[in-house]
Amino acid sequence: MTASERPRAGRKRSEASRTAILTAALDLVRAHGYAAVSIDAIAAEARVGKHTIYRWWRSKAEVLLQALSEATDEQVVPVETGALESDLRERLALIFSLSSHEQPASHLLRALMAEAQLDPAFHALFKGYIERRRGHLRAVFERARDRGEVAEGVDLETLIDMVLGAMWYRRLIQHGPLDRPFAESLARITAHTARTALPAGRGGAG
């Protein structure tokens, strides 16, 4: 092995620090809530200097968005049952099991949504997080369209808005639970709409 092929110790230390920071941030939020967490607290918990955190992120919101995104990607795996309704039902049920109202992930998502309304730079990052989730749903609907489960001309982006809009409204207002019965209902209504909706531009007069 040549010198250029050997792993660099600095890179290993950087990755170890990054992992420690993300883990510490989530641990602190679970223990104390979003409002009580600071960059100072994250640095102390991760045993790194604040400058190490600011090398990669601008704020605690950015740290926590990264931590949540990576944790979610590990836990929410693609589900392919061969039918749109069951694909949606199982995916939504899994998401809700990890982020029901009383769970730390749901509290964190609400806090990050609020931060995104106040900080334009963070809004761009949060939008990217949401866009990746839209991409996951888009793949579900595209597979369903290929199977003939989506009526010709139906706008997939509107179907995605229906699912995420219902989920986020319930997450923010908390007027009803994020649970399996809601996943079943939302999946059933969305699948029915996908099969029977009029194509874009073909609706009746408003």
TrEMBL record:
Q: Which residues cross the membrane?
A: none
What's the short name of a Pfam family annotated to this entry? Answer: TetR_C_11
Where does the HTH tetR-type domain start and stop, copy by copy? 15-75
| Stored PROSITE patterns | HTH_TETR_2 (PS50977)
Q: Which domain of life is it from?
A: Bacteria
Q: Which UniProt keywords apply?
A: DNA-binding, Transcription, Transcription regulation
Name the Gene Ontology molecular function terms of this record: DNA-binding transcription factor activity; transcription cis-regulatory region binding
Which residues does UniProt assign to DNA binding? 38-57
For this protein, the record's PANTHER family field holds:
HTH-TYPE TRANSCRIPTIONAL REGULATOR RUTR (PTHR30055), TETR-FAMILY TRANSCRIPTIONAL REGULATOR (PTHR30055:SF148)
Q: What is this protein called?
A: TetR family transcriptional regulator
Say which species the protein is native to: Chondromyces crocatus
